[in-house]
Specification:
The structure holds 2 protein chains of 2 kinds. By secondary structure, chain A is mostly helical. Chain A is built from 15 helices and 4 strands. In chain B, strand 4, helix 4 and strand 5 form a beta-alpha-beta unit. The longest helix of chain B has 18 residues. Chain B is globular. The chains are: A mainly alpha, B alpha/beta. The interface between A and B is large, with 46 and 46 residues.
């Protein structure tokens, strides 16, 4: 397609804003339509997608934006799940009100784990967090009085309030959709503007960032804490949506699942978390339909194929496709930008984060 | 934004599609999952993961129901003959996956009943859901006492096999008869399964001369139980009650042999497997080990001319070619499958309530592959346990040999045996 045929949108203009709003409305409409057009089990799966997306979003803050690798996010997820479980069952809390505490507990744990992250890089950090993931299930079993040990605990699933006229699965979906929206807003606020630039600067060159006045220690530990907090919220949702917590649900496999979902969706992208979670939830189901015994192999092959065809994740492909149709420019810029943001698809960038600020976008 | 979203959602109202699967059905209309020609069942099994050996049960049942359909189907109590569609999904032995599978079976595949889902934690995880949805959760593949102890609280859930507390009581009775002053050392897995056995055993020996001199527990994540067995051996106990899963059972039997500790060994039926436990432990260490069983052993020559066993050995290779006929999981699958068919035959109306009624009023039903005299008997809300009799077996040379008589004194009493 020739350069002239592309629609040119300049950031900040009315035309640009309308385009963003239209895409955002379409996405919202689809999100709201899902529980009305899908059967209950599908709705449950989409609720799972949103839940996983929150955890992946948190991991993305850490890995995608800040360059730290964690194989231990299943631990923070578990922490959130058990926090919510204990508050609902033993203290009679409202399920939604448990989530801020699930966030806070995981946040605190993440902050503590983030401290060694100051000295450890890359593989070494990955190893420390790996041990976190491995020690989680046995640890849960040891604290039997609180966690229910190996047998786990059943969590009562909240029904829909009568005034909504919704079925339980629909209600869960909307509650989780609303929570996801809140978490996306928090993530967007974190990665856009000053903090986001600092995060990326730390990732790309810590020393240079430090000379620019970025406090490395604070930024790295806080990023870890926020990231863990997101996983904690997802874990809290898991507790009341699935309705059962037990140690086998929080193994290393889950942590690796988060990582693969993040990479499939696209690093350093907020919408990528949703695409990655779609992959995480739906591909194993279809793989098992093909062959029960080979489902793991099929999932693995699918993962490899996706990474070959879309090395920058689903979002990378979407950006390319969009780039063929639309040319988004900064006010005053004349040529096409290096990596045009995905309008509406990526809330962080739709909000006006400079797409060319670093190589972070892909 | 959140408020706007919720208001919008509320304004749209509930699902307009009224054929939603959930909700109870009237007594006249038929329940979801059953037509005049078909009845749908579904189960969740560990086809992958650490417990995938149990997947053989699911595969056997798929084959068994195919055989039933090839014979024309099952003639139910309302006079209509229906084919059985049995859908299974893999849960890799994790409860969260079992929950998702149960939802999928009930809401997407719209099964008439959940049947034989495997694992204690997995069934615990879906028990509340099944009862809320009023979907039968039948003949679950676990011996935990919890699935039969309170039929009023969980009217749609039943176990099938000899419950762990009942088995423990049988060992208690066996010791009272053969070793009334036994000093017992217990090794148990530190979870509900292990404690189910231990507590019922303690209750069974109350008021006797039998004493537990030492208890040692282990976690499934422990690499070995060597130190526990060493501790137990030092007590000089003359009975070793081995409440462990296969890997640990083999380790414990082997270690006891190495230490030269030669007590009477009671091995829970969970691990009474020759291929998975006694062979790796060494037959020389396994001689005279005592266990309890309620199904026919496919390797026992005593059943070579038994009609049900002959049929089993003929049909299994044809309908479930991946399962070794010598594997007792195959026998288990055929027996529980036959029980399900008998329950359907007794169901008078095409509803879930009618199915539960039929299940809970089964009396003295004989199943071909259960030991002679073992009968499936339930009694409304009074007796929630289908199989409650068992017989002692002892390991001689290279196989288990039945000992004494069938112990059927616990019929209708399993619920009182646990702690």
């Amino acid at each position: 397609m020739s350069e002239r045929r592309r629609v040119v949108l300049v950031e900040g203009t009315a035309k640009y804003r309308i385009a963003v709003a239209v895409v955002a409305l379409v996405v919202l409409a689809i999100a709201i339509a899902i529980p009305y057009v899908m059967p209950p089990f599908r709705v449950f799966q989409f609720t799972e997608v949103l839940m996983i997306a929150i955890a992946v979003l948190g991991l993305n803050l850490l890995t995608g934006y800040n360059g730290q690798i964690s194989l231990g996010h299943s631990a923070f997820f578990a922490l959130g799940a058990y926090t919510t479980t204990v508050l609902i069952i033993d203290h009679g809390w409202n399920y939604v009100l448990t989530l801020p505490l699930a966030f806070a507990v995981a946040f605190a744990a993440g902050f503590l784990v983030g401290i060694p992250a100051l000295r450890l890089h890359g593989l070494y950090l990955a190893l420390v967090t790996l041990s976190l993931a491995i020690v989680t299930p046995p640890l849960i079993k040891r604290f039997e009085g609180v966690t229910g040990g190996a047998m786990g605990r059943s969590v009562p699933k909240p029904g829909a309030p009568g005034w909504t006229g919704l079925a339980q699965d629909q209600w869960h979906y909307f509650v989780v959709l609303a929570i996801t929206a809140v978490m996306v807003l928090i993530a967007r606020n974190l990665v856009s503007g000053r903090i986001g630039r600092a995060l990326r600067a730390v990732r790309d060159d810590g020393l240079a960032a430090e000379t620019m006045g970025v406090d490395l220690a604070i930024f790295k530990t806080l990023t870890f804490a926020y990231s863990a907090g997101f996983a904690g919220v997802a874990g809290g949702i898991f507790a009341f949506v699935v309705g059962f917590v037990s140690p086998e649900s929080f193994t290393l496999v889950l942590a690796i699942g988060f990582l693969s979902a993040m990479v499939v969706g696209g690093l350093s992208s907020i919408s990528g978390a949703v695409f990655g979670s779609l992959f995480y939830v739906f591909v194993p189901v279809y793989a098992a339909d093909v062959n029960d015994a080979l489902s793991g192999v099929i999932y693995g092959v699918a993962l490899i194929v996706v990474m070959f065809l879309m090395p920058a994740g689903v979002v990378g492909v979407l950006r390319r496709v969009r780039g063929l149709v639309v040319d988004v420019r900064k006010p005053g810029a004349h040529g096409p930008t290096v990596a045009p943001p995905v309008v509406g698809r990526d809330l962080s960038e739709a909000a006006g984060v400079p797409a060319t600020s670093s190589s972070a976008e892909l | 934004m959140v408020a706007a979203l919720l208001t919008l959602a509320a304004a749209c109202g509930g699902r307009s599609n009224s054929s939603s699967s959930s909700g109870s059905s009237g007594s006249t209309a038929s329940s979801p999952g059953i037509t005049d020609t078909e009845v749908k069942l579904g189960g969740s099994y560990p086809f992958s993961g650490p417990a995938s050996a149990y997947g053989a049960i699911g595969k056997t049942l798929e084959g068994y129901f195919k055989y039933v359909n090839d014979q024309g189907g099952v003639k139910m109590g309302d006079g209509k003959t229906r084919k059985i569609t049995f859908t299974t999904y893999d849960d890799a032995y994790t409860p969260a996956n079992a929950v998702a599978n149960a939802k999928r079976l009930v809401e997407q595949d719209q099964v008439f009943a959940l049947f034989n889902t495997l694992g204690t934690a997995n069934n615990t995880a879906i028990m509340d859901y099944a009862n809320q949805q009023k979907v039968p959760q039948l003949y679950v593949a676990t011996g935990a006492g919890t699935f039969g102890v309170n039929p009023t609280a969980h009217p749609f859930t039943t176990g099938w096999q000899l419950a762990y507390p009942t088995e423990a009581a049988i060992y208690g009775q066996y010791l009272k008869d053969s070793k009334p002053d036994a000093k017992v050392a217990v090794l148990y897995q530190n979870d509900d399964y292990g404690k189910d056995y231990l507590n019922a055993f303690k209750k069974a020996i109350q008021g006797t001369q039998i004493k537990i001199v030492s208890e040692q527990s282990y976690e499934t994540t422990d690499p070995t139980v060597d130190s526990q067995v060493t501790n137990l051996a030092q007590t000089g106990a003359d009975v070793f009650f081995n409440v462990t899963t296969p890997k640990f059972a083999a380790q414990a039997i082997k270690k006891a042999g190495e230490l030269g500790w030669k007590p009477l060994q009671l091995l829970n039926s969970v691990s009474a497997s020759i291929t998975a436990v006694l062979k790796p432990a060494g037959f020389e260490n396994a001689q005279n080990i005592v266990s309890a069983t309620y199904i026919k052993d496919p390797t026992d020559p005593q059943w070579d001319n038994d009609a049900a066993m002959k049929k089993y050995k003929e049909l299994l290779p044809k309908y479930a070619s991946g399962v070794d006929p010598a594997n007792s999981f195959g026998v288990y699958g055929f027996a529980v499958g036959e029980t399900m068919v008998k329950a359907l035959e007794a169901t008078k109306k095409p509803t879930r309530d009618a199915l539960m009624q039929a299940v809970r009023s089964m009396k003295g039903v004989e199943i071909g592959l259960l030991l002679p005299g073992v009968k499936v008997t339930m009694d409304g809300t009074k007796d929630g346990y289908p199989v409650e009799s068992g017989q002692i077996v002892a390991f001689k040379t290279d196989r288990f040999v039945l000992q004494g008589k069938l112990i059927d004194t616990y019929e209708g009493k399993s619920g009182t045996l646990g702690a």
